[in-house]
Amino acid sequence: MPRPGRNTYSEQKPPYSYISLTAMAIQSCPEKMLPLSDIYKFIMERFPYYRDNTQRWQNSLRHNLSFNDCFIKIPRRPEQPGKGSFWALHPSCGDMFENGSFLRRRKRFKVLTSSDHLAPNKQSDAAHYLQQQAKLRLSALAATGTHLPQMSTYNLGVSQSSTFKHPFAIENIIAREYKVPGSLAFSTMQSMSAGYPLHNQLTTAWPHMYSSSVIDTAAPISMASGDYGAYGMPIKSLCHGGQSLPAIPVPIKPTPTSMPAFSALPPHIPRAARRGPGSR
DNA sequence: GCCTGTTTAGTATGTT
DNA sequence: AACATACTAAACAGGC
């Protein structure tokens, strides 16, 4: 594969799955949620490859949004006119890309249903939580006088009040020298972990997701208001801060070590329930 | 009619 | 080889 520029991938297909690309787009904006059209825009601006055959990849992308539990749909509020809903990442999907590959996840993120003996269903809890978080982020940034870029200009993480760099933050992914996917992933994860102290077993995949900087910067926005998340636990722990953060990505064949964490899982999101027996 | 969103199905490819 | 995941295509429905 040829080497693209620092921030773009020329005409070559980027070594990222649609899930990665979508997550990048979502993470690139301060609200951590984007409408479909803005996700399209982000990908097309960043990756010239996707300026062609838009019908094809956009269909795939929509399929991914609907099919994968790691994406949750957030309905627009009356004061947010526009077409379509917002899409956000599930609060607990941070370590999907366990082995550092942005092309293929090791585990599929799956929100468990009530049939999995979890807490009773509470409709759109995650969506509700994320919408609240987006509001809090906006108000916090506004209060500190932080410049908020317009949705379409895509904040690349630099102006965020947090030093936290999400794994899908564009500067964590694009602004790295391109190598073949395998080695890219490895070197990427090595450099990622360099600046972020490890906390627990969850740091294996996304060390920076669980670094102290996450707790110290992201959490106060919500904790200051005394908020509790929609999952009935303090938002702090939902925001990858607590040691008890549940490992949501569910191996198809659950391992003994991963099972105990299920008791702490948030309630399911309705989408999971509509999967027919033929789904994969 | 177009866009968005959901679902099903088939194929390709990586992992175990 | 079997399985899991990703990609693609297509059909369909609902909203504007």
TrEMBL record:
Keyword Transcription regulation (UniProt): yes
Boundaries of every Fork-head domain copy: 13-107
Major localization class: nucleus
GO BP terms, alphabetized: anatomical structure morphogenesis; cell differentiation
GO CC entries: nucleus
Pfam families: Forkhead
UniProt-annotated location(s): Nucleus
One GO MF term attached to the UniProt entry: RNA polymerase II cis-regulatory region sequence-specific DNA binding
DNA-binding positions: 13-107
CDD domains on file: FH_FOXB2
Keywords attached to this entry: DNA-binding, Nucleus, Transcription, Transcription regulation
Entry annotated with the keyword Nucleus: yes
Ranges where the record places region Disordered: 261-280
Name of the protein in question: Fork-head domain-containing protein
